[in-house]
Specification:
Blueprint (H helix, E strand, L loop, with lengths): L10 H13 L3 H13 L6 H13 L3 H13 L7 H13 L3 H13 L6 H13 L3
Helix pairs in contact: 1-2, 1-3, 2-3, 3-4, 3-5, 4-5, 5-6, 5-7, 6-7
InterPro entries: PPR_rpt (IPR002885), TPR-like_helical_dom_sf (IPR011990)
Organism: Polarella glacialis (Dinoflagellate)
Keywords: Repeat
Length: about 130
């Protein structure tokens, strides 16, 4: 819509739109907007990236979250922070993929990102759900 009104979407506009999609649980729209931003030469900021990851988490789309994570890392645009990791661990945890959660905790340490209690709770819940 912004383009039709003569506006050139930037990282802030994409971030707001992706965050709105996340709030109303439209994970596919969030991923589509993130893809559109990149195709338009706009580098999504960490807020947009986290909102897209969180939208996948809330929709229990762990595979989409992992694919997005890999795509963002390959594109060297991901600036992971505790919110990024927590969303991804939450998405994997909802599907009881405890090993992926533990791998992500290891990755956090390597990336010098400190987990918080929400991150650790999400990983612990994944282990509990799967009996580990």
């Amino acid at each position: 819509r912004a383009r039709s009104e003569g506006l050139t979407p930037d990282a802030v506009m994409y971030s707001a739109a992706i965050s709105a999609c996340q709030r109303v649980q439209k994970w596919e729209a969030a991923l589509s907007l993130l893809s559109d931003a990149r195709s338009q030469g706009v580098t999504p900021n960490v807020i947009a990236q986290n909102a897209a990851l969180s939208s996948c988490e809330k929709a229990a789309r762990w595979e989409a979250a992992l694919k997005l994570w890999a795509d963002l890392k390959d594109a060297i645009t991901l600036e992971p922070n505790v919110v990024s990791f927590t969303a991804l661990i939450g998405a994997c945890g909802r599907a009881s993929h405890w090993a992926a959660c533990l791998d992500l905790l290891d990755e956090m340490v390597r990336d010098t990102v400190s987990p918080n209690c929400i991150t650790l709770d999400a990983a612990a819940n994944a282990c509990e759900r799967s009996g580990h």
